[in-house]
Amino acid sequence: MLIHSHFSGLGFAVSVFEGSSNHRLIFACTPVDDEVSDMFYSIWWPKVAGDSSDAPPEDVRARVEKQFLRTVWDDLDIWRYQRYVERPALAKIDAKPYMAMREWAKQFYDVPASV
């Protein structure tokens, strides 16, 4: 399976999963204040060949709900307790792009990050 992700800033991503299921995900996060963000999540699943209905078949709905919608709630349990770390321990392969993104994002904040 291949994953193609396109990011727009820090809080918006469109991902295309090519291979096992060929679905698309949109994930967006908009900060409301220093402690709260609104999160939006949408899944596009390809229609089964010959299906002309406006609603997905029940087996597709059940699979999407079980495999993808449930994971959002699992992730929220993790994200709820995340805190900003000024100098995170990153894998060598991740350090350069993550720190470049953080440096780029600083232009959007008037105040230094609280640790």
UniProtKB/TrEMBL annotation:
InterPro entries listed in its UniProt record: KshA-like_C
A GO biological-process term: cholesterol metabolic process
Gene Ontology molecular function: any one: oxidoreductase activity
Keyword Oxidoreductase tagged: yes
Pfam family membership, one: KshA_C
Transmembrane segments: none
Domain 3-ketosteroid-9-alpha-monooxygenase oxygenase component-like C-terminal residues, every copy: 9-109
Keyword annotations: Oxidoreductase
Protein name: 3-ketosteroid-9-alpha-monooxygenase oxygenase component-like C-terminal domain-containing protein
Originating species: Mycolicibacterium litorale
Upper taxonomic lineage: Bacteria, Bacillati, Actinomycetota, Actinomycetes, Mycobacteriales
